[in-house]
Design a protein that fits this description.
Elements (H helix, E strand, L loop, with lengths): L2 E3 L7 E5 L4 H13 L2 E6 L5 H12 L3 E6 L2 E6 L10 E2 L4 H12 L4 E5 L2 H4 L4 H9 L3 E5 L2 E7 L3 E2 L2 E3 L5 H11 L2 E2 L2 E4 L7 H8 L3 E5 L2 E5 L8 E2 L4 H13 L4 E8 L6 H8 L3 E10 L2 E9 L3 E2 L2 E2 L11 H9 L1 E7 L12 H12 L2 E5 L2 E6 L8 E2 L5 H11 L6 E3 L12 H8 L1
Parallel strand pairs: 2-17, 3-16, 6-7, 10-12, 11-13, 20-22, 21-22, 25-26
Antiparallel strand pairs: 1-26, 3-5, 4-5, 7-9, 8-9, 13-15, 14-15, 17-19, 18-19, 22-24, 23-24
Helix pairs in contact: 1-2, 1-7, 3-6, 5-6, 8-10, 8-12, 10-11, 10-12
The chain binds shikimate-3-phosphate (S3P).
Length: 424
């Protein structure tokens, strides 16, 4: 589907409520499937990725009752059964990497497959540590399909070269089925939804600075309410900051401190952003945010901030085009391993609009403030986050833009456009 985006003249105003967090939705399905009994999951994502996870667990013997389009009840016997088909992860790296950890320690064999993009993404990062735990995984050149031969696993102390929640979670989930203690240490703390939800469901898990440890555990079935996704809120945060005369309230935003890097970055840039209130639900922080159009200045985004805003970097690049001076984003080389090579795809498409942006090996350098011209056809490279970031750029372009393959936004955020219309 091609999407035309025109300049937003009157500013964005009003209130929206952000739909379900993708990362937490995946974990809710996985962990509920491992707990014996019934789990009610409220505010489950409508995105395609979490539904890939849900379908896989149905193939692994879990029963799902659809109570509404965002409410499901999972019934599990507390153990998985051998699937009679390949398990399709679609576009979802989180599904493939986390489910691998779970399947590595089962008493049956299974095969995980993905779409074209996922089949090109690196799996060595999980195959290596899982193999150290005794897993047997066959993959050509460390890429999907992954053939997993269930084994008895043992704990390890893994010092990860990456700050990656997918790697950390894969190992911790294998640790749920392994003998002894499994520990993962990462350079900087990545999103900790796995740790929080496993703890909420009664697992033996503990964290100490950058290290998380787990031992074999039985999970309890407990209702899970999933908060809104700050990565989805990011498009609205940036849009309100850059479109003149904007003032919006974004409700139900997940405010887990391992995910709020976008708020930190906006503050560094001098943006007018305010957290209105904050509660805790199912072990996660959630609150409302008010954002207004602001005069912005460039900043440096690097180091421990990167894992806290990794998925927001394409839209932060758009933000930086509207900030005075230089914005440097570095230490983000892993962006090249996402649904597209987000360093080169972001740079290529923003350059088409007239942005002053330079590709570096581990990020980008942007000089602003630039008036974006538009009048172009842009590619989304089948990457949901790039498609939505380009839409936001279109709101401040002089001329209309056209974005190809815009339907890929359904991977994480099918409600994206409808919510934009609400505040336009
Ligand atoms: C995710 C972790 C991040 C993120 C992805 C979702 C998760 O990946 O980019 O969209 O749910 O654990 P990495 O942990 O590999 O950086």
């Amino acid at each position: 589907m091609q999407k035309i985006v025109s300049k937003c003249i009157n500013g964005l105003s009003g209130e929206i409520s952000i739909p379900s967090d993708k990362s937490i939705s995946h974990r809710a399905v996985m962990f509920a499937s491992l707990a014996k009994g019934k789990t009610l999951i409220k505010n489950f994502s409508k995105g395609k990725d979490p539904h890939s996870t849900l379908n896989i667990f149905k193939s692994l013997g879990i029963n799902v009752d659809y109570l509404s389009d965002t409410e499901i009840e999972i019934s599990s016997k507390g153990e998985l059964i051998q699937p009679n088909k390949f398990l399709y992860c679609g576009n979802s790296g989180t599904t493939m990497r986390l489910v691998s950890g779970i399947l590595a320690g089962q008493h049956f064999d299974s095969v995980l497959i993905g779409d074209e993009s996922l089949s090109k993404r690196p799996m060595k990062r999980i195959i290596e540590p899982l193999t150290l735990m005794g897993a047997e995984i066959e993959a050509t050149d460390y890429h999907a399909p992954l053939k997993i031969f269930g084994q008895n696993l043992h704990g390890i102390n893994y010092v990860s070269p990456l700050s990656s929640a997918q790697v950390k979670s894969s190992i911790l989930l294998a640790g749920l089925f392994a003998d002894g203690v499994t520990s993962v240490t990462e350079p900087y703390v990545s999103r900790n939804h796995t740790e929080l939800m496993l703890k909420y469901l009664g697992a033996n898990i503990s964290s100490n600075s950058n290290t998380v440890s787990i031992t074999k555990s039985t999970l309890e079935p407990k209702d899970i309410y999933i908060c809104g996704d700050i990565s989805s809120a990011a498009y609205f945060i940036v849009a309100a900051l850059i479109v003149p005369n904007s003032d919006i309230i974004i409700r139900n935003v997940g405010l887990n401190p391992t995910r709020t890097g976008i708020i930190d970055a906006v503050k560094l840039m001098g943006g007018d952003i305010e957290i209105l209130d904050c509660n805790e639900i199912s072990g996660e922080k959630v609150g409302d945010i008010r954002v207004k159009h602001s005069d912005l200045k460039g900043c440096e985004i690097s180091g421990k901030l990167i894992p806290k805003l990794i998925d927001e970097l394409p839209v932060i690049a758009v933000l930086a085009t509207q900030a005075e001076g230089q914005t440097i984003i570095k230490d983000a080389a892993d962006l090249r391993n996402k649904e597209s090579d987000r360093i080169s795809t972001t740079v290529c498409e923003l350059k088409k609009l007239g942005a002053d942006i330079l590709e570096t090996p581990d990020g980008f350098i942007i000089i602003g403030k630039t008036e974006l011209n538009g009048g172009n056809i842009l590619e989304s490279y089948h990457d949901h986050r790039l498609a939505m970031s380009l839409f936001v750029a279109g709101l401040v372009c002089k001329n209309d833009i056209l974005i190809n393959d815009f339907e890929w936004t359904n991977i994480s955020f099918p409600e994206f456009e409808e919510l934009f219309v609400k505040i336009s």
